[in-house]
Write a structure and sequence with these properties.
This is Rubrerythrin. This protein is mainly alpha-helical and 153 residues long. It has seven helices and two strands, in the order αααβαααβα. The model has no long low-confidence stretch (mean pLDDT 86).
Length: 153
């Protein structure tokens, strides 16, 4: 189970770095920059939540996983590859927004709240908040994109 948590944390940490790199590449659009920095902060907070989950007694807290280790590893490789791409060639604003939406949609399923089966309903509710945060990210990004580009993402 520790390996599962470690991979989830690494995915979230990589996403945080992606959003920071995107934000740092934005020039003259403070609103978008702040939006991306907030997302980076939220992803870093998710890492802390995962670290908390890792400390819990697995037998009493979790009954299993819904996502295979193979899928987690593939998601991590995808995130690391995107980070390398962004570091090599930072995306333009529109592309950064579209990538952020794609990331959030694609990675919702690997949040601890979505990827684990919980034996404690209070614990489940706590971690489901992380998944809802990503849904809010997607909605916020889509609204911003529609407002700025006058079309849906």
């Amino acid at each position: 189970m520790d390996e599962f948590f470690d991979t989830c944390a690494e995915i979230e940490s990589t996403l945080s770095l992606i959003y920071r790199r995107m934000a740092n590449a934005i020039r003259g659009n403070e609103r978008l920059k702040e939006l991306l920095l907030q997302m980076a902060k939220d992803e870093a907070d998710h890492v802390n939540q995962i670290r908390f989950a890792r400390l819990l007694p697995a037998d009493a807290s979790f009954t299993g996983t819904k996502v295979s280790k193979t899928k987690l590893d593939l998601m991590l490789l995808k995130a690391q590859s995107l980070l390398q791409d962004i570091e090599a060639a930072p995306p333009a604003e529109e592309d950064a927004l579209l990538r952020a939406i794609e990331l959030e949609e694609g990675f919702m399923q690997v949040h601890v709240g979505s990827a684990l089966e919980f034996s404690d309903p209070r614990l489940k509710e706590r971690f489901e908040l992380l998944a809802r945060a990503d849904e809010e990210h997607v909605a916020t990004l889509r609204e911003y994109f529609a407002e700025v580009y006058q079309r849906s993402a």
